[in-house]
Amino acid sequence: MRRRWRRPVYFLVALLVACAALTHCAAFGAAPMGDRLERARRSPQWRDGRFQNPQGSWADVAASYLRLFARSEPDTRPSAPIDTVSPVFAMPPASGLAVTWFGHSSAFVEIDGVNVLIDPLWSARASPIGWLGPSRWFPPPAKLDALPADAVVISHDHYDHLDYGSIAVLKGTRARFIVPLGVGAHLEHWGIPRERILELDWWESARIGTIDVVATPARHASGRGPSKSNRTLWASFAFIGSKHRVWYSGDTGFHDDLARIGERFGPFDLTLIESGQYDANWPDAHLGPELAVEAHRRVRGGALLPVHWGALQLAPHPWTEPIERVLVAAACHDIEVLTPRPGERLEPTTHPSMKRWWPNAAWRPASKAPVIGTKNGNGDERIALPPCRG
Where in the numbering of this chain does the Metallo-beta-lactamase domain appear (predicted)? Predict the structure, then answer.
C-alpha cells in the first residue's frame, strides 16, 4: 500500500523541482523581497519566518495521500458536458448588485457601480505545468479581457486562485489588483506595474471607486513551489458599497474571526463561500458544506452562493456532493442558496428563481462523511455545529 502512493508523489515532486530549476517556468512566480518582505515581517500574522494561522491547522497528511492515490471514489467528475451561459454585461444591474459565477471560485461582482473580478482561473489546468495537474471540465463561459473589471481580487497564491495565464491576459487591462501581503511579488514578476498592485494585511482596506475592499481573516495556507510555503498571506474579502455589501471567503477553514467579520462589516447581501474540495483528513484547510453554511450565518449573510466546486477536481469527493450538502444544511436554517449555472448573471437581492442544472449523482451525506474543523489545530478538539432548525 505504501508504494502505491509514494511513487506518484515522488514523481510529482521531481517534476516540480525540475520545472523550478528552469528559468522559463515563470508560473512559479517570485518570493517577497526587500520592502515587501519587511512589510510581511511586521504583520501580526507573521511568526517564525512565515505567515501562520492564529488557531493553527491540523491535517493527517499520510492518510490524505493514501486516499488520493490508493483509492478511487465514484462520480468525482462529470460524465456529461456541463451546460454554461455566455453572460452579457451591456447594462448595469437594476438593483445595483449582480454576481456571475464562472465555476470553482472565479466570479464577477458588480456592486454599486464598481466591478470586481475574483480569483480568475481561465487556464486549462490549475498548475504551473501546461500538461500536468487538475484540468477544467469546461471552457470559461466568458472572454477574460472582455470583462469590464475595475479591480481583480486574489485571495491567495495557490494555482487554482492565482492563475499565471489569467494574469498574463489581465495585464493588458486597466484593472487594479488587490491581494494579501506578499502576493504582489508574483504579479510584479509577471509584469504588472507596482502602482496597479495594492497589498493588504487582515483588516486593512483599499478604496476602488465608490466601494471599500477590506481584507479579512481566513484560515488556510499559501505557496506555489516545492519549498518556502506560507511566505505570502491568504485572506477573505469584504466589499462595502454605499448600498450593498458582499463577502468572499477565499479558501478557509472555520475560524473565530467569522463572527467578528459579521459584526464589523455585516450584514451582507451576498456571500460567496467555498463549499467544495474538502476532505476529513484536512478539515482546517477548507470549510466543507456544513461549516460553509455556518460561516454564512456567523458573518450575517443574506443569500449564499457556494463556490470552490463545479469546475475541476482537487479532492476525492463526488463532484456534486458540495452543492447537495449545502442545500441540506441551508434548509435547516432557512437560508437562500443561489445555484447559477456557470456564466449565469444574477441579482441576489431580487431573490431569483433557481433551477437545478447538475445531474442526480451519488453523493455522501454529512452523517456518512463528516468534515469538522478543529478548534486550535488539534485533531481531538472539534467544532460543534448548532442543531438543525428545519
Answer: 115-309
Residues 6+ apart with CB under 8 A from 279: 64, 67, 286, 315, 316, 317, 371
Which residue's entry shows cell 518582505?
Answer: 37
Per-residue pLDDT, 124: 96
d(CA 363, CA 371): 14
What's the rounded Cα separation, in Å, for the pair 271 and 341? 17
In terms of Cβ atoms closer than 10 Å to its own Cβ (0-12, 13-18, 19+), residue 324 is middle
Cα dihedral 254, 313, 182, 30 in deg (nearest 10): 160
Q: Which residues contact 241 (CB under 8 A, 6 or more apart)?
A: 96, 97, 111, 112, 113, 114, 210, 211
For the segment 238-257, the average pLDDT, to the nearest whole number, is 98
Task: Return d(Cα 247, Cα 213) in angstroms, integer.
Answer: 10
Q: For residues 68, 70, 75 and 79, what is the CA-based torsion angle, rounded to 10 degrees? A: 100
Q: What gap in Å lies between CA 186 and CA 325, rounded to an integer? A: 36
User: Can the peptide bond before residue 267 be classed as cis, meaning omega within 30 degrees of 0?
Assistant: yes
Burial class (CB in 10 A: 0-12, 13-18, 19+), 191: exposed
- Which pLDDT score, from 0 to 100, does residue 375 have? 94
CA angle 135, 188, 181 (to 5 degrees): 85
pLDDT at 61: 74
Prediction pTM value: 0.93
**pLDDT level of residue 9 (50, 70, 90 thresholds):** very low
- All cell numbers assigned to 310: 463545479
39 burial type by CB count under 10 A (0-12 exposed, 13-18 middle, 19+ buried): middle
- Alpha-helical regions (H) of 174-288: 184-189, 257-265
Close Cβ partners of 263 (under 8 Å, ≥ 6 residues apart):
none
106-111/97-103 β-pairing: antiparallel
**Which one of 3.40.50.970, 2.30.30.140, 3.40.309.10, 3.60.15.10 gives the CATH number of domain 2-76+95-350?**
3.60.15.10
Q: d(Cα 373, Cα 358) in Å, to the nearest integer?
A: 28
